[in-house]
Amino acid sequence: PLVMRPLMAGLRQIDKSQLEAASILGAHPLRVIGQVIFPAVLPALMAGGSLCLLLTTNEFGIVLFIGAKGVNTLPMMVYSKAILESDYSVACMIALINILLSLGLFMLYRLAAARTGVRS
């Protein structure tokens, strides 16, 4: 949600005539994404990404300094593997699992919200 809200606002601000002009001029859909849509939403994407990074950094610090002994969260596992053990491939895999879990839960939330008619 922290990235999606600014991103959706950025997508809503794209002038439809730019997309139509690119299509009429024969631009491939990937080229339209790369040269029209992406540059237009880049500020919103960076704003959402910085919000996400700020929140993640804040929560990681809390868990790192106040967390109970023996409690192992996914961010703590990434930190342990990458920083303490220098095992970057395992750290990347754990981070990927964390991202996939987050995306899966977000999709479930969107599905449940769509079924109940709740707008977010």
From TrEMBL:
Chain ranges passing through the membrane: 40-68, 88-109
Domain ABC transmembrane type-1: 1-109
Assigned keywords, A-Z: Cell inner membrane, Cell membrane, Membrane, Transmembrane, Transmembrane helix, Transport
A biological process term (GO) from this entry: transmembrane transport
Its membrane topology: Multi-pass membrane protein
Annotated CDD domains: TM_PBP2
Organism, scientific name: Klebsiella michiganensis
Protein name: 2-aminoethylphosphonate ABC transporter permease
Taxonomic lineage: Bacteria, Pseudomonadati, Pseudomonadota, Gammaproteobacteria, Enterobacterales
